[in-house]
Predict the 3D structure of the following.
Amino acid sequence: MTRVYALANQKGGVGKTTTAVNVAAYLAAAGRRVLVVDSDPQANATTSMGVTVNSGAPSLYDVLIGGAPLESIIVASKRPRLDLAPSAPALAGAEVEMVGLRGREHLLQRALGPVLPRYDFVLLDCPPSLNLLTVNALTAARDGVIIPVQCEYLALEGLSRLLETIRLVQARLNPSLRIAGLVMTMYDARTNLSQQVVDEVRRHFPGEVFNTIIPRSVRLSEAPSYGECILNYAPYSSGATAYQALAEEILKKN
Amino acid sequence: MTRVYALANQKGGVGKTTTAVNVAAYLAAAGRRVLVVDSDPQANATTSMGVTVNSGAPSLYDVLIGGAPLESIIVASKRPRLDLAPSAPALAGAEVEMVGLRGREHLLQRALGPVLPRYDFVLLDCPPSLNLLTVNALTAARDGVIIPVQCEYLALEGLSRLLETIRLVQARLNPSLRIAGLVMTMYDARTNLSQQVVDEVRRHFPGEVFNTIIPRSVRLSEAPSYGECILNYAPYSSGATAYQALAEEILKKN
Ligand SMILES: Nc1ncnc2c1ncn2[C@@H]1O[C@H](COP(=O)(O)OP(=O)(O)OP(=O)(O)O)[C@@H](O)[C@H]1O
Ligand SMILES: Nc1ncnc2c1ncn2[C@@H]1O[C@H](COP(=O)(O)OP(=O)(O)OP(=O)(O)O)[C@@H](O)[C@H]1O
Ligand SMILES: [Mg+2]
Ligand SMILES: [Mg+2]
């Protein structure tokens, strides 16, 4: 049974894309067939996986607005068993264009249907907002939402709004939506702040925070400039071992 | 003549709020009268300035959607000569509600008109997207947009899209919109990546990058948890001296 997760948090720069791309790579390395869907107009997941962002090439825009089948835009990544449904800048305009479409919140869920049998995991990378693109991902995420939480004070602030949106989507669009887990990211052991934030999040979400904490590691921020996941770029770095451990936790979670 | 700047970049977590709040504090400390307008539903600028985010209290939502005068929501901050027009979670819904309003891109510009004479500087903090809230800020920003750019590879990617949006707003909504400057943020001297990104941005934007580079400093990320700007929280930290220098550069720019 294919597991579909959304990576969502409207707070910007918390590690949604980095988590989606690197967890996907380790799941594929563990023998699973994995699809990453980039539903952010910034197309950072597309770039991070080494695929050129080309405003003329087929992208998720053509699927959501043009009605093209999802498999017509899927491309292979550099790693075996890891595919990508790329984004493009045109997706920024999709928001307004989707508002008028019937079943506008279910567009991604419907597009995913025919390709699910080909994958064991689907990871949906979201933009930093609670807009229609993110709602589409939350509606399609039948196994839940993975919430990256940066170990910073301001990142705590937005969690209650995210939970409210999740509750709304659960009530109206996707009854099986739940929190698959919160992932603490960019942990800096040299500061007290990081540990304070981790403790606070564990207190508010008992039992829902992944054990694996992702440390701040410059290798993780360098890898996208080479179009590589951390497994290819710096497999022995602290960021790599953390994402490997997180992928293993997700595999065990079934 | 009041100077109005927008702090915008659709890439998330690059330091828009941190720059708006701390530059505002140093401009006020230099004797200027300053207003920060928080147009992000996350309300991070509101929290960072020590104002409680309260979904029932008057906020920018009441101004943009309810037509309330801007001065009815303005509150004083802890520092003299520094005021805030607070945000609230309700602003997240404003996007859809504004789409149908006449002159929807000019709502903030019109609301600012009557209060401008009371201030020397107005800083508009934007959410991490190129939506109607950000377009409103770009339309109101008659002195230009200050673009925080995180010293990370992925932060480079989105700049061309931001420039396109600025060009569109310039052509159709605010002919005086220009780039007031790019601010390099979260510079980490221990990595090569930061310097590479700085060099790249200076190459692409000759003469438009502020000399001041904001270093990564944990004090800057701790300050919001006390509702304090860096000037109050850690005035001798590297982050504080950098934002002081940036405020001086902005003062000289006229
Ligand atoms: N653990 C980490 N250590 C160091 N840098 C990191 C780490 N995780 C992510 N980064 C870097 O921090 C920045 C933000 O991460 P990322 O882009 O994955 O966040 P995001 O939540 O997807 O952002 P957005 O809200 O813009 O979509 C990127 O430049 C990325 O390379
Ligand atoms: N120079 C710095 N050094 C260390 N931490 C910083 C620095 N600047 C900002 N931060 C922290 O990094 C995080 C992101 O910064 P901030 O919230 O200001 O960015 P933003 O662009 O406003 O984010 P968003 O896109 O969500 O609005 C915050 O937790 C902030 O406290
Ligand atoms: Mg992202
Ligand atoms: Mg912000």
Observations:
- The interface with chain A takes residues 10-14, 17, 41-44, 47-48, 53, 89, 92, 95-96, 99, 127-131, 150, 152-154, 157-158, 161, 188, 190-191, 193, 218, 221-222, 224-225 of chain B (CB under 8 Å).
- The radius of gyration of chain B is 17 Å.
- The first strand of chain B starts at residue 3 and ends at 7.
